[in-house]
Each structure stands twice: as structure tokens, then as C-alpha cells.
Amino acid sequence: MPEIRFDLRARGRTAPVRVTVSAEPIRPVELLPVLNQVNDALIGLAVQDSRVSCGAGCGACCRQMVPIGEMEARYLAELIAAMPEERRKRVTQRFVEAVAKLRANDLLAVPSDPGERHRRGMEYFNLGLPCPFLDDERCSIYEHRPASCREYLVTSPAANCSAPTAENIQMVELPAKLSQVLYRFGDGRGEETSKWMPLPLLLEWAAEHRDNAQPTVPGPELLRTFMNKLTKRGT
3-class DSSP state for residue 60? Predict the structure, then answer.
């Protein structure tokens, strides 16, 4: 696979990025590991002057509503399918239980109004519902975690995360959020309206859309299109 090299520049700093991408046509979901590398490099530029409070064993944010795009839903569903049988069964059951609890509390729908979305997000958090991937307060898929998790970088005291309101939580300001492009990139062009879902819905969504045809685009072209969309958002 060809290596693609480029530099990310933000706030007067530069981060070299080196990734390998198939020259053959690929599905957008197959680009996600590369995009995670790009996101980590972008975040690395933003946190250089910040002291991030998040650390291993602190799972407070893992009880918040985590938004994921359709690309991430397919990717994580495929990740679960490839797990050893016992682990796959355990994780799948957690998803079933999480969806049932959210359905019982009428928290599956995503409101379009930002204020209502925030209110329901707090209701979600107050359920104390752990992410299905959380094991012993640690992310069991850390390398593969969603973009919104990567971008949630708290600088206020970790204790404040027990009540994640705007008054309590200060965060690293990112020059651009890769997640915002991901939510629109299921078509491989970034021209869709923003589409995301709460993470516990991913297995239901993936099962419903298993037979849907996905676009395929040569890897370098797909990456170039994504980066063009990202740079328009501020990098």
C-alpha cells in the first residue's frame, strides 16, 4: 500500500502525518483507522499547552451519551463480530441491556434542538449507564474508540466530571473536530447531512443496514476528499 505524507498545521505548530492507504477502491469504513491516526495527530497539536485531567481508570465520561457516525457504527460492529466468542457474547449482551434501558427511559431519539439534546444528554448521564465497552473503568477498545471520545479532553479537575455541566467542565479547544466530518461521510463524499446515533444503538443500526450497498472509492482519493472537508472546518 502506498504511504501518504502530509503535515497538519494548527496554532503555529506542525505535526507530520504518515499513513498507508490502499490504492484500490475501498469502503469509507475501511479508511477509519487512518482517520483515527489523523485525529490523534491533530489532537496532539492542540494539547501541547494543556494539562488534560483524563486518565486510565477514570470512566466518568464513559457514562455520557457518546455520538457516533454511520462509518463508526459499521467499524465497531465489525470489530465486535471479530471478537473471540465469549467476549463477543458478553459485549453484545451489554448492548442489548443498554438499549433496553434507554428505550424504557425514552432516550433513544436524538432531538434536533440543541437545548433539548443537552437536557436529554444529562438524563442519559444520570442513568449511570456504562458504555458497553467499559471494563473495570477502562476502555476495552481504546485504540479503536470513537472520534468523539478522542476529542473529549477535560482540563478541569477530574472530580468535576461527576456533574458534567458547562459550568463544571473545561475542555481543550480543538482547531477542528474530525468527528463533525465523520457524521457526514457515510457517502464517501462528505455531502450528507449530519447523521449520528448514541453508541448503544450501533448493533441494531448495523443489523438493519447490513445489506445496504456502500460506495467504494480509491483510498488516496477518499482520504483527500475527507481532508479537504476537514480543513474547511478550521485546520
Answer: helix
Among candidates 180, 137, 188, which has minimal Cα distance to 158? 137
| Bridge partner residues of 8 (DSSP) | 15
* Cα–Cα distance for residue pair 21/6, rounded to 1 Å: 13
* CA pair distance 15, 7, nearest whole angstrom: 6
Q: Is 156 exposed, middle or buried (0-12, 13-18, 19+ CB in 10 A)?
A: middle
Helix pair angle (70-81, 85-104), 10° resolution? 140
**Measured at the alpha carbon of residue 29, what is the angle toward residues 23 and 33, in degrees to the nearest 5?**
75
Written as nine digits, the cell of 56 is 486510565
CA-closest candidate to residue 219, choices 23, 1, 4: 23
DSSP designation for 197: E
Nearest C-alpha neighbor of 72 from the set 43, 31, 110: 31
Measured between alpha carbons, how far is residue 179 from residues 27, 105, 160 in Å? 18, 27, 24
Number of structural domains in the chain: 1
Beta bridge partners of 69: 196
pTM: 0.92
Q: Which amino acid is at 52?
A: V
Residue pLDDT, tens place only, 27-36: 999 999 999 9
Domain membership of residue 19 as a residue range: 3-231
Average pLDDT over residues 211-220: 91
- Bridge partners of residue 6, in order along the sequence: 17
What are the cell numbers at 115?
437545548
Q: How far apart are CA 130 and CA 139, in angstroms?
A: 11
**To which residue does cell 442513568 refer?**
127
